[in-house]
Amino acid sequence: MRSITRSPAGLSLAAAGLAALTVLAVSGAAGTAGAAPAGTDSLYAPSALVLSVTGGDDAASGTVLRAVTLVCAPRPGGNHPAPAAACAELRANGPELDALAEPRSDAACTREWDPVTVTADGVWQGRRLSYSYTYANPCGLRNSIGVLFGI
Predict the structure, then answer these.
(1) Which residues of 61-79 are buried (b: 16+ CB within 10 A; e: fewer)?
(2) With 50 as the cut, is the pLDDT of residue 99 above it?
(3) What integer is the mean pLDDT of 4-14?
(4) How many CB atoms neighbour CB 55 within 10 A?
(5) Under CATH, to which class is 48-142 assigned?
(6) Residues 150, 82: contact at Cβ < 8 Å?
(7) Residue by residue, what is the 3-state secondary structure of 100-128?
(8) Which residue in 34, 55, 75, 131 could disulfide with 120, CB within 3.0 to 4.6 Å?
(9) Distance CA 87, CA 40 (A)
(10) pLDDT value at position 3?
(11) So where are the chain's domains?
């Protein structure tokens, strides 16, 4: 059996670190730099989405396979693999995302039923957006027209 002992010096260092963090938190010096007060206006309408791919025909009861964030204002970002291209598609199509989700007409996919559902939830140009599209199988998703759901 292995036992770990702590020296009083180690405890006093940990206590000193905790005390320093407490002072910073109480004084407001930590975590507030650059934060805008609530209710302030921005030059850009908020545009941030969470995109997900879920196994199954219902996003609420399926298993989330992948999820990413996409921020489009003031500049493309998030952990989407191609944020600039995805934001450009969103700007071109607005909140009508069916045009981006549809599989290409020349896609050669089997007719097996193994559904996957993509969702986009968040805010697009200051308005709430909630979108869902179910593919018959993963091949349809791989062959979708846009890069938005290519996560």
Answers:
(1) ebeeeeebebbbbeebebe
(2) yes
(3) 38
(4) 14
(5) alpha beta
(6) yes
(7) HHCECCCCCCCCCCCCEEEEEEEEECCEE
(8) 131
(9) 24
(10) 34
(11) 48-142
